[in-house]
Amino acid sequence: MKSLYHHPTFGNITISRTRRSRRITLSVRPSGEVRLSFPPYVSQRRALEFLESKREWILHAKAKYAARPVQPSLSAEDIERLRAEAKACLPVRTEELARNFGLRYGKVTIRATRSKWGSCTAQNNISLSLFLMTLPPHLRDYVIIHELCHTVYHNHSAEFHALVDKLLGGKEKVLAKELRGYSTR
Fold this sequence. Notes:
- With 185 residues, the protein is an alpha/beta fold.
- The protein has helices at residues 44-53, 55-67, 76-101, 137-149, 158-167, 172-179; strands at 2-7, 11-17, 25-28, 34-38, 108-111, 118-120, 126-129.
- Strands 1-2-4-3 form a 4-stranded mixed beta sheet.
- Strand 1 (2-7) and strand 2 (11-17) form a beta hairpin.
């Protein structure tokens, strides 16, 4: 259940009570939007106390995103060009990487997803954002390998991250940090 909470310092905050949450989580989006989610057994008051305890972290994160150069908005023509490039490149690269690492997947679809770079279904179908084409090739590979590893582990467990890290030659954390410097927005 999502709702908006108006905070005197941070403005509107998206609050989400969700059964999938195991703990209270807080995120700041590149747009500056603050999101707070928590499991059903945690009270909203407790979640808001957690938010207040992270005040300095939120201010730092918002300042970091505000200091980034604003990316120009893409025209419809730009998006169609990216879509064509993505359809020509990403399924082929996914097949190459899957073959190299002995991983199997269903199909690859390309979408104009702005909320995430990629996803993997329970049927091992992989969806990739056409905005991956705005990334350097090594980060595209990182996202594809991450999604391919979800065909083995459908979660973000320690085993999942160990597999991703192994396939990336021990560079998962470095690449994840680098990817956070990019946005689909």
